[in-house]
Design brief:
OB fold (Dihydrolipoamide Acetyltransferase, E2P); 3-stranded antiparallel beta sheet; 4 helices
């Protein structure tokens, strides 16, 4: 028997198996590479969800970002739920949002300002319109900012067409973020807050509270006679050491 030949065959089989394993798709991976024009400069980015991307080239290389005017659902796990939707169904829409965002080369601008999480604030007006038009985005305006009237009109049309997240009806409010008391240190006023977007006006409303949430706890907020819910996961556990509710 030619043992050298046998060894080569075994080695090739092992390499082939390893390659096959490395190519196995990750069903929860939804990053999407794209190019856009940032402050007039061609810029390479990777969309991590529908309203943020990582900058891979240019002046702001390495920066995390947060897009203005709109908000998309959290894409780190199946955490949203309202009406007839299951968390898993809304998670599939959230994951697909990065593909929609990466589908075109948008013209974007920034003045270099950062948000509270030290993410670069970016404005991509046409991207906002497209995400909202397809029912992947919510018109979103925090305190001191007025909702974009044109975006509100586009959102109303998307709701009427039952596009994306509106396919099973329109709730009056959607939770977009949860904060447990003391999660980010002591709050100055002794309170934490959740944020709920009014789907009629685009206002991102603050709901203050003094509750301490457990990891994977379901928290619900009412807007009028409608209710939306979200599973609480601390920021530090969303991407590493994920709890069972994100698997």
């Amino acid at each position: 028997m030619n043992w050298r030949l046998v060894s080569m065959v075994v080695l090739l089989a092992v390499v082939s198996h390893a390659r096959g394993r490395s190519k196995k798709p990750n069903p929860d991976k939804h990053d999407a590479k794209a190019m856009l024009v940032l402050n007039g400069e061609e810029t390479e980015v990777v969309w991590t969800d529908g309203d943020s991307f990582k900058i891979k080239s240019g002046q702001y290389k390495g920066s995390g970002t947060r897009l203005q005017r709109y908000n998309t659902l959290e894409a780190f796990g199946p955490v949203h739920q309202w009406g007839g939707w299951t968390p898993r169904e809304l998670f599939e829409i959230a994951k697909a949002s990065s593909t929609v965002a990466a589908s075109q080369k948008w013209a974007c601008t920034t003045d270099g300002k950062l948000d509270g999480y030290r993410r670069l604030l970016i404005d991509c007006p046409e991207a906002a319109k497209e995400l909202v038009r397809q029912g992947h985005g919510l018109v979103y305006a925090v305190e001191g900012n007025k909702p974009d009237p044109e975006l509100l009109a586009i959102q109303k049309e998307a709701q009427g067409k039952k596009a994306g997240i509106w396919a099973k009806g329109v709730v009056k409010g959607v939770i977009t973020s949860l904060h447990s008391l003391g999660e980010d240190g002591e709050d100055k006023d002794g309170e934490a807050y959740n944020r709920v977007v009014d789907t009629r006006t685009g206002e991102a409303l603050v709901r203050k509270h003094q509750d301490v949430y457990d990891t994977c706890q379901t928290v619900c907020e009412k807007t009028g006679d409608d209710q939306s819910c979200m599973i609480y996961v601390p920021f530090k556990r969303r991407y590493g050491g994920k709890p069972d509710c994100l698997r």
